[in-house]
Amino acid sequence: MGYRWLRIAVWIVVALAVVGNVAVLVVILSIRSEVASVSRFLMGHLAFADLCLGLYLLLIASIDAHSMGEYFNFAYDWQYGAGCKVAGFLTVFASHLSVFTLTVITIERWMAITHALHLNYRIKLKQAGYVMTAGWFYSIIMSSLPLSGISNYSSTSICLPMEDRDTYDTIYLVTIMGLNGVAFFIIALCYAQIYMSLGKETRQAHGASMGEMSVAKKMALLVSCS
Asked: Which family does it belong to (predicted)?
């Protein structure tokens, strides 16, 4: 990684990502409720995706610690070995599943808040299951393409599919960027509508309405973090 502060920061993120998302999964799986919650179902998928991203960072941090000061002796074996392929698969799978799940969560919250009086507009658990199955297939396909020769995970030491050799590689990279852009647009649009649905009184909140204004600000923060 080249810098000590970067190594320390990565290990901190690894600890938070692994411990935090494992804790979320344990809590979600331990809840026993007669009525299945779509929100908990989706949050479980998001936590699993973020856990995979934490495991990717753990692999990168571990090889960095193992090869510190002499990475040139390990570069070829690492980048063209199974380890880098596993790390690359994890990060592409995790990032796509995370963005997909976050988009679905946003749409589910948008429907629940902006159509609060219309119960038929809610996403049911069965529907959420079908949607997330599609999301898993999509994420697995996108993370498997570099293993089949479309771009590859060996072009960089952090095992990201950055190689652009031909038209197929270009289409793959543009598709990734385009789909992430579409997801961000959907998330931003949904949260903007949620914010607007709070009403002018809330946006100019005073006194008791400050709580709702705080919620609106947190929504804007979520869009920025996305």
From this structure: Belongs to the G-protein coupled receptor 1 family.
